[in-house]
Design brief:
Elements: H1 3-18, H2 24-33, H3 41-51, H4 56-61, H5 68-79, H6 82-98
Helix pairs in contact: 1-2, 1-3, 2-3, 5-6
Subunit structure: P1 and P2 exist as dimers at the large ribosomal subunit.
Function: Plays an important role in the elongation step of protein synthesis.
Biased composition (Acidic residues): 92-104
Length: 110
């Protein structure tokens, strides 16, 4: 990762931690305050656009989660509700069936 990417990432994390909206101008201001001079404005614009309307804290807390079904499984097991875990597995199987390529008319040899 380049210095520009790291500086933009850290600046975005600082803004998110303070609860401030992440914009290119604010990222650039933080980077200049840190006396990092080799960051082109395109990096701050890209980071601001990518994080626009997103909760960075939520993104960071869900990095390792596999989705709703995976998050529901351990919680259901800890609560002692076996029925909820079975329902989550059934929903996951149904979703897998719905998303197959065959249903959309695509095939390997078309």
């Amino acid at each position: 990762m380049s210095t520009a990417e790291l500086a933009s990432s850290y600046a975005a994390l600082i803004l998110a931690d303070d609860g401030v909206e992440i914009t290119a101008d604010k990222l650039q201001t933080l980077i200049k305050a840190a006396k990092i001079v080799d960051v082109e404005p395109i990096w701050t614009q890209l980071f601001a656009k990518a994080l626009e309307g997103k909760d960075v804290k939520d993104l960071l807390s869900n990095v390792g989660s596999g989705g709703a079904a995976a998050a529901g499984g351990p919680a259901a097991a800890a609560g002692g509700a076996g029925g909820a875990a079975e329902e989550a597995k059934e929903e996951e199987k149904e979703e897998e069936k719905e998303e197959s390529d065959e249903d959309m008319g695509f095939g390997l040899f078309d």
